[in-house]
Amino acid sequence: MWKTVVRRVLVMIPQLFILSLIVFILAKQMPGDPFTGLITPETDPSRIEELRIQAGFYDPWYEQYYRWIANALQGDFGQSYTYKIAVSTLIGERALNTFWLSLLSVILVYLLAIPLGMLAGRKQDTLLDKIIILYSFISFAIPTFVLSLVFLFVFGYRLMWFPTSGTVDVGLESGTLTYYWNKIYHLLLPAMTAAILGTTGIIQYLRSEIIDAKTQDYVKTARSKGIPIRRIYTRHIFRNSVLPIAAFLGFTITGLLGGSIFIETIYGYPGMGELFISSITSRDYSVITALIMLYGFLALLGSLLSDIIMSIVDPRIRID
Amino acid sequence: MTQHNNETVMMESTPPTGIQVVLREFKKDKVAMFSFVGVTLIIISIFITAWMLDQEEVLKINLFERYTEPGENGYILGADEAGRDVLGQLVIGAKNSLLIAIWVTVIANIIGIALGIIMGYYSGIVDNVMMRIIDFIITLPTFMIFIVLVSIIPEYGVFELVMIISAFQWIGVARLIRSKALSEGRRDYVSASKTMGTSDFAIMFKGVLPNLSSLLIVEFTLSLAGNIGIETGLSFLGFGLPPSTPSLGTLVSYARNPLVLAEKWWVWLPASLLILLLILGINYIGQAFRRAADAKQRLG
Question: Coiled-coil segments, which residues (chain A) (predicted)?
Fold first, then answer.
């Protein structure tokens, strides 16, 4: 299996290389440059011009690309010119916020989707099954921004159950139990939104998987041995049907990261998606390029992770 | 159920045609029937009303009517921040959103079908090279690239938006068509055509293509729903249609102002619900088409 993993990682390198070229060319098309961020009322325009020449702004593009990629490989993506700090530091802070949001979302996705999918498959064609199918249909069709706005309106502004923006209340002492609870409290509504949108695939997959399993020989054997139906579902069928779902994990994580643009913007949650939109608006190019590279890398990593988990879970598809 | 089947067998000695199968599927599935009638009525009424409405009149700023509540002063759905009629904007926005989604779907499907059939029919090296390119594009963070492209194109308008979205949306179609064309290309009728000296082009587009038509209808419907979501999403973030051409997403985007979101629900909620209804309805129709296209899944 390690051979496959190594091969996949090797394939990732040219893909990332092409992505970096595209991102770099796009970034060059954008007006402005990193030095615009250094301009303050006291700076002398000729000094900036000097800096530009010093940094090789007028060099041929391949030399600039080489410098950019060499720095990027060492984790240096330049300076953010709106925040005036290193891009890597800025993204690091935001990535941590997005990570907590995604983690809670993934947990909620599985907590919601597994029981619903199991129930729908077990009670096939009953009213309950139909309701669950309808739910998965709506959650598939509803755009992220519509669901987020409706949730924020209903639970945030009308019922006032949840805070409407931010990560934590001001004035709470960091490190205390109340502080952490308050953080989770701020996360709950955005995470619920992301989780509901993420359940569709898993519910539908699990449902059809369980319906298929019902007629399998191992279930018949278990029945004829006299094992109670409940136990067959919770032990035998569950284990066989739930395992492939673990393989979705990689895609689920990347999917959640991608969907975070809408959720973070609407809930005013300072994560990577929100940073991307605000950087586009303020034309903070060094941040934009770094973010696109990061998302591209995460997407590749997600599909690799899925394949690895899949081959651990299901030895039949292990390719050497 | 069995009785019904016997009847059909007796009545029809010839197998049912495509349209009959689809009709029977819709008759069996009341929700799909309802969606079909509903979506058709909504779309027709949107286009007729939008055609009769004067866009200049609707978009004229009238600060006296700022945030007029629904039902007052002749504003059925109230007015927005600048005193513009929400109902009028809703109709015009829906027309624009639908037209864009249809354009994107048509363009993406034409490119996707052509490339997909070529890849599947020739297979071998053509297929290999194209598949590597597709595999690469799939891993790109598409939505972010849309936003970046929208913000760097200088003369940005409706045409550019359609092109940007279509440039990425053909991939799904191409992959699907390719996998079907791969197996279709090994069928006897294709070999027979080849022996008779029919040109590759004729085999691909007159022989293989019609055999994939049921699949194409399904794909077209489902991607139409997806494209409505993409366009309204981009417009919601402010990177979709230019302000002169309002979309449903533009109307929803007023809710990014917390005051509008919390207090003036009539500005953004109708547009949100219309987006949801359109996507849900079109998806449901697509699912019914899919079941009709696959004999194993048919209800009727």
Answer: none
Give the torsion sign (CA, A91, A93, A97, A103).
positive
Q: With contacts defined as CB-CB under 8 Å, which chain A residues touch B265?
A: 153
Q: The domain that contains B99 carries what CATH number?
A: 1.10.3720.10
Please name the member of B141, B149, B237 whose beta carbon is closest to the beta carbon of A296. Answer: B141
**Tokens representing A155?**
């639970």
Q: Is B153 in contact with B160 (CB distance < 8 Å)?
A: yes
Q: Tell me, rounded to whole angstroms, the distance of Cα B3 from its chain centroid.
A: 39
With beta carbons under 8 A apart, name residues in chain A contacting B284. 137
Does residue B210 fall inside a structural domain?
Answer: yes
Contacts of A146 in chain B (CB under 8 A): 252, 272, 275-276
- pTM equals 0.83
d(CA A132, CA A64): 55
Judging by beta carbons within 10 Å of its beta carbon (0-12, 13-18, 19+), is residue B55 exposed, middle or buried? middle
SS3 call for B179: helix
Question: What are the backbone angles phi and psi of residue A83, rounded to the nearest 5°?
Answer: -95, -10
pLDDT in tens, A206-236: 888 888 888 888 888 888 888 888 888 888 8
Q: Which domain holds residue B190?
A: 28-59+71-298
Does B258 contact A164 at a Cβ distance shorter than 8 Å? yes
pLDDT exceeds cutoff 70 at A123: yes
Question: How many folded domains does chain B comprise?
Answer: 1
Residue A143 is nearest to which of B232, B258, B268, comparing CB atoms? B232
Interface of chain A toward chain B, CB-CB under 8 angstroms: 15, 18-19, 26, 29-30, 137-138, 140-146, 149-150, 152-153, 157, 164, 258, 261-262, 265-266, 276-277, 280-281, 283, 288, 291-292, 295-296, 299-300, 303
Q: How far is CA A240 from CA A4, A246, A312, A316, in A?
A: 25, 11, 14, 13
Flag whether B254 is in a domain: yes
Domains of chain A: 87-241+253-271 (1.10.3720.10)
Q: What is the pLDDT of residues B42-95, one digit of tens each?
A: 999 888 888 887 777 777 776 666 766 776 666 666 777 766 777 888 888 888
Alpha-carbon distances, residue A33 vs A39, A45, A78, A253 (angstroms): 11, 14, 11, 33
CB atoms B261 and A262 under 8 Å: no
What ipTM is given for this predicted complex? 0.82
Give the distance from residue B261's alpha carbon to the nearest chain A alpha carbon, in angstroms.
Answer: 6
What is the C-alpha to C-alpha distance for residues B198 and B206, in angstroms, rounded to an integer?
A: 10
DSSP state letters, A212-277: HHHTSHHHHHHHHTT--HHHIIIIIIHHHHHHHHHTTHHHHHHHHHHHHHHHHHHTT--SHHHHHH
Say whether A300 and B139 touch across the interface (CB within 8 A): yes
Q: How far apart are CA A15 and CA B135, in angstroms?
A: 10
Nearest 5°: CA angle at A192, between A161 and A164? 40
In a domain, B283, yes or no: yes
Mutate which: B135, B140, B142, B147, vs A, most A CBs within 10 A: B140
Closest CA–CA distance from residue B125 to any residue of chain A (Å) = 19
